[in-house]
């Protein structure tokens, strides 16, 4: 049976009217948030209000300014004449109960770009196939979730960045390690070895900080780490605006479970009014239990961020750039990150060139997955193993006109 569009069309029409009405409401809230931001100029008052929320255990999850006014835009600085950017990204093949064997594969791509140097980029890939029960099953014997594979891949990406940065610590100019996505890493209960993975992730952060310390000591240059979040949907600044608008007696958990009359609004439209092309926001620190754990590991590892308008003209495009405190507390390192990332985005139309290339190195395409399945089947048969196909999977292949195991 095909989709009956005569039944869908009225629903689509209702959807259009509802979204239009919602956009009007969001526009009004955005205007309100903009007016509140313009009044939010006293850093001491902001920090006092956040401290009050902490004392009352009110569960504030918004942003705290580091040391810059939050209602100002910060212009694009000059890029360092020379630098090396190391970008990492990953891809995966998840465990499939309908495949010839239970396994998963992660592939990390690392792209090294030499800014201001007449050197060709470097490309590194690290495929990792896991198939023993130790890796593909949890403590109850169930096949691990996709979330568990994602967590392991994320740790592998940061460890690859840390290793490649350490291997280049003798370079006499700044290093910038770029990760795709947020730097705050946490895992849920469906990840069997979550505690171990978090320790390995923190270990990679420490390794990168060690590289920074070695470069500072030997050459006077820095090693920065950033997490690049494209098209962020966070509302950290909006939450701060809501907190600042409350009367002191209202600073309680009940009032901070939502953003009040700003609920549903994200930071992006407010930032588009504040930031011109190439400009960044103030440095901010997310208030969360996860970030507190990073701080408790060492003050250098707490995560800060700024918003960056990576466009050259309208329409604007926003990114959130995260960094550990050893970067955020050094103005020159912040300037280098700001300038280099914007230049990278100009090369690749609003997304860092080095990250784009790392993604291209890491991605596992459909025909490659098919070849991997065929290779595994051949090897199983060579070792006298029975290979059974899933009728459900085969029927999907027939319906969609694909070769076996193609995705």
Task: Please explain how this structure is put together.
There is one protein chain. By secondary structure, the chain is of the alpha+beta class. Among the domains are: 83-228, Nucleotidyltransferase, domain 5 (2-Layer Sandwich), CATH 3.30.420; 366-400. It contains 14 helices and nine strands. It is globular and about 75 Å long.
What is shown here, in short?
With 407 residues, this protein is of the alpha+beta class. Among the domains are: 83-228, Nucleotidyltransferase, domain 5 (2-Layer Sandwich), CATH 3.30.420; 366-400. It has helices at 5-39, 43-55, 133-136, 146-167, 194-219, 236-245, 253-256, 267-274, 289-297, 325-328, 331-347, 353-362, 366-382, 391-400; strands at residues 63-65, 83-93, 104-115, 122-130, 175-180, 223-230, 284-286, 303-309, 318-324.
Itemize the secondary structure elements and their pairings:
Layout: H1 5-39, H2 43-55, E1 63-65, E2 83-93, E3 104-115, E4 122-130, H3 133-136, H4 146-167, E5 175-180, H5 194-219, E6 223-230, H6 236-245, H7 253-256, H8 267-274, E7 284-286, H9 289-297, E8 303-309, E9 318-324, H10 325-328, H11 331-347, H12 353-362, H13 366-382, H14 391-400
Parallel strand pairs: 2-5, 5-6
Antiparallel strand pairs: 1-7, 2-3, 3-4, 6-9, 7-8, 8-9
């Amino acid at each position: 049976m095909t989709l009956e569009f005569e039944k869908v069309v009225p629903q689509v029409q209702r959807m259009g009217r509802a979204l239009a009405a919602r956009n009007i409401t969001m526009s009004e809230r955005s205007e309100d948030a903009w007016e509140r931001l313009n009044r939010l100029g006293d850093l001491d008052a902001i920090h006092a209000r956040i401290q009050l929320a902490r004392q009352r255990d009110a569960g504030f999850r918004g942003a705290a300014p580091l040391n810059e006014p939050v209602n100002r835009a910060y212009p694009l600085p000059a890029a360092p004449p020379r630098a090396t950017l190391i970008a990492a990204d990953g891809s995966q093949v998840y465990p499939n109960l309908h495949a010839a064997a239970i396994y998963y594969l992660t592939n990390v791509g690392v792209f090294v770009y030499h800014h201001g140097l007449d050197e060709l980029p470097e490309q590194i890939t690290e495929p990792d196939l896991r198939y023993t029960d130790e890796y593909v099953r949890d403590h109850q014997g169930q096949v691990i979730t996709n979330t568990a594979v994602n967590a392991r891949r994320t740790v592998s990406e940061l460890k690859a960045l840390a290793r490649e940065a350490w291997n280049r610590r003798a370079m006499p100019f700044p290093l910038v390690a770029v990760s795709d996505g947020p730097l705050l890493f946490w895992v849920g209960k469906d990840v069997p070895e979550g505690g171990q993975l978090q320790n390995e992730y923190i270990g990679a952060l420490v390794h990168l900080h060690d590289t920074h310390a070695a470069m500072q000591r030997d050459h006077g240059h820095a090693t920065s780490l950033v997490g690049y979040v494209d098209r962020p949907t966070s509302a950290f600044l909006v939450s701060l605006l809501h907190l600042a608008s409350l009367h002191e007696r209202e600073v309680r958990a009940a009032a901070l479970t939502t953003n009040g009359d700003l609920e549903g609004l994200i930071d992006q439209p407010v930032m588009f009014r504040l930031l011109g092309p190439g400009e960044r926001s103030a440095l901010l620190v997310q208030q969360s239990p996860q970030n507190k754990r990073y701080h408790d590991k060492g003050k250098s590892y707490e995560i800060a961020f700024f918003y960056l308008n990576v466009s050259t003209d309208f329409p604007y495009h926003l990114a959130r750039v995260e960094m550990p405190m050893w970067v955020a507390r050094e103005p020159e390192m912040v300037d280098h990150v700001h300038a280099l990332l914007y230049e990278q985005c100009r090369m690749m139309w609003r997304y860092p060139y080095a990250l784009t290339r790392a993604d291209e190195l890491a991605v596992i395409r459909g025909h490659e997955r098919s070849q991997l399945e065929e290779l595994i089947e051949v090897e199983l048969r060579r070792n006298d193993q029975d290979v059974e196909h899933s009728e459900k999977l085969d029927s999907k292949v027939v319906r969609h006109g694909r070769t076996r195991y193609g995705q």
